[in-house]
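TASK: fixed-backbone design
INPUT:
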């Protein structure tokens, strides 16, 4: 199971998988992208990885990870700032 690290961390932090975003760019990331609430494929990912993701961002060379975090994680956080998961002390 390729997503075990992510699943273990989410469970330890008591974060529902529906609230997790993951980025992937290769076939070994497909299971992880499908397991989370928002799986984002990198622009350079093969078509099969992009098909498994809910969104596709730019390539690594185009700062795709940063763009995805800004667009999906930070923008969503502003909308759901009252959510319990954003008040969590880590």
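OUTPUT:
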């Amino acid at each position: 199971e390729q997503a075990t690290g992510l699943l273990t961390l989410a469970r330890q932090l008591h974060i529902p998988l529906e609230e997790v975003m993951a980025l992937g760019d290769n076939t070994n990331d497909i299971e992880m992208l499908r397991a989370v609430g928002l799986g984002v494929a990198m622009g350079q990912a093969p078509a099969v990885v992009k098909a498994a993701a809910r969104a596709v961002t730019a390539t690594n060379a185009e700062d795709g990870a940063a763009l995805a975090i800004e667009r999906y994680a930070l923008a969503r956080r502003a909308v759901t700032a009252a959510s319990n998961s954003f008040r969590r002390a880590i």
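COMMENT: The chain has four helices and three strands.
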